[in-house]
Write a structure and sequence with these properties.
Distance between the termini: 14 Å
Largest sheet: 5 strands, antiparallel
Radius of gyration: 23 Å
Number of helices: 1
Strand content: over 45%
């Protein structure tokens, strides 16, 4: 058997291994190959990474794992987590050291094992709880029927102290680049970048910080090594001695893959997780600003060499409006720019839409949102996000504390929202909504009948679009209106698989 034949067999086998199967068919009678639409098949393996939830002994953490029902999946599968145990560079597991080279603060306690999150069937959430500061980061893998659209939510309640309130983060897939506009090293803020490595080999990353005057040049954030199957919380103030109210954090992975998230904690105004902004692009959507927000701050950054000029609009329930005094935003190249929008929603649901006023320049952005006043303030973040696409899922919802916000910035769209069965009982329910162009609606989301426990919300685009969505969780602790916001980008539960044709001529080459 010659090399060409072996290459053909190897290529076909590799495609089948990635997609589940590949279709081989003979060319038509005309002898001409015809282009065929790619088939959408369920993914067969998904990885998710969860950061260590808190350094507070008062933290109460809940995890919710959910996989929506997807047609065409295999009949078997599994999903499980292992602890991303923090360890020193020499692998000794000493969790009390700080790496002077890369600023990785490894905590003062050894992290314990992963919580039990073992799902039984797609369509029903499974939950687990943890207490205190010794809960580790997690590395999770789902296979077979549990892989398509697998979603895991980490929700933390901190009763008092730095970052008190409600914090939430979606566990994310590993990647090689992340942008976080909205971080800070100002007095009163304690921000960490959490890096989690799911693989068997070490990953190496650079962390760059950009402030109002550009790059905060430092070599401390270069070449940070994250050991295999481990998680590193890196304190931003160890990477620079400059105090900056608004920072953009860029995580660039030199080798390997990482999960990344920023934990932003405030001495007086609570705190939350800051998820990565969608990839730099000319137009951005930041959905789901709570209608009772008392302060909204926009933070933007352009990584290119050209300045960006953006038109700022608010998609409200009645249509698109321009915030008075903040009609446009000029973002200088390589510099973080911020604008205070005040109580821009004025008691109504809203989403911020950023579009170029002229030439399109790639931008990343996020919102810092505050609810409450004085000693009862609480903070959350909304990064620019990708559209819902085919389907997006939000886990860990309750009957009273959940708000689902959906916006259609350009065209009227119809969406289907399904409330799953409850984690402890209940029957799934679906509703369909029409979102008019240029508006944002806080929809009356369905709740499972006879609900027990928590449930998941799945949003599917039926027609029109694109649509963007965010879910707000709210809980009042000691009179403080705790809340957290998670956006709902496409869950990438399916993958396009092209059909292939036989080409026997390759055997003759």
């Amino acid at each position: 058997m010659n090399r060409t034949t072996l290459s053909l067999i190897a290529g076909t086998a590799a495609l089948a291994a990635v997609t589940g199967f590949a279709s081989l068919s003979a060319p038509g009678a005309s002898g001409k190959d015809t282009a065929r639409a790619a088939a959408e098949l369920p993914v067969e393996r998904t990885s998710l990474l969860c950061p260590a939830p808190s350094t507070s002994d008062l933290a109460e953490t809940s995890y919710t794992s959910f996989t929506p029902v997807t047609k065409g999946t295999s009949s078997d599968g599994k999903a499980a987590f292992q602890a991303a145990t923090e360890q020193s560079a020499d692998g000794t597991g000493d969790a009390g050291k700080t790496d002077g080279k890369n600023g990785a603060k490894k905590g003062g306690k050894k992290k314990t094992g992963a919580p039990a999150l073992t799902p039984k069937e797609p369509g029903t959430p499974v939950t687990a709880d943890a207490s205190g500061s010794d809960t580790p980061g997690l590395v999770g893998t789902a296979e077979g029927k549990f892989a398509p659209g697998w979603t895991v939510q980490e929700t933390i309640e901190v009763a008092a102290g730095n970052g008190r309130g409600l914090q939430g983060v979606n566990c994310t897939a590993p990647d090689t680049e992340f942008w976080f506009p909205g971080a800070s090293t100002a007095a009163g803020r304690t921000d960490y970048v959490h890096l989690t490595n799911p693989d068997d080999s070490a990953a190496v990353a650079d962390i760059e910080l950009y402030g109002k005057d550009g790059d905060l040049k430092s070599t401390v954030g270069e070449g940070i090594t994250v050991p295999p199957h481990s998680s590193e919380p890196i304190l931003l103030s160890t990477l620079t001695d400059q105090k900056q109210t608004d920072l953009t954090v860029h995580v660039n992975v030199r080798s390997g893959r990482l999960g990344a998230a920023v934990q932003a904690l405030d001495d007086k105004a609570g705190g939350d997780w800051l998820a990565a902004s969608t990839d730099p692009t000319g137009s951005l959507v930041l959905p789901g600003i709570p209608k009772d927000a008392t302060s909204v701050r926009l933070i933007a950054f352009t990584p290119g060499d050209a300045d960006a000029d953006l038109k700022v609009r608010l998609a409200s329930p009645s249509g698109s409006i321009t915030p008075a005094g903040n009609e446009t935003l000029h973002v200088k190249a390589g510099m973080t720019t911020a604008a205070d929008l005040g109580d821009v929603t004025r008691g109504e649901a809203g989403s911020l839409i950023l579009t170029p006023t002229g030439e399109s320049v790639p931008v990343v952005a996020a919102l810092k949102v505050v609810r409450g006043k004085g000693a009862k303030q609480e903070t959350a973040f909304i990064p620019a996000t990708a559209p819902v696409g085919t389907r997006a899922t939000s886990a860990d919802n309750s009957g009273k504390g959940t708000t689902l916000s959906i916006t259609a910035p350009t065209r009227t769209a119809q969406v289907k929202v399904t409330a799953s069965a409850g984690s402890d009982g209940g029957t799934a329910v679906s509703k369909t909504y029409t979102i008019k162009a240029g508006t944002t609606q806080d929809v009356d989301a369905p709740v499972p009948s006879a609900l027990k426990g928590t449930y998941a919300l799945t949003v599917e685009t039926v027609s029109g679009g694109p649509v963007y969505a965010a879910r707000t969780l709210a809980a009042t602790e000691g009179g403080v209106p705790g809340f957290t916001v998670q956006t709902l980008p496409d869950d990438r539960g399916t993958v396009a698989v092209p059909e292939t044709d036989q080409d026997l001529s390759v055997l003759q080459k």
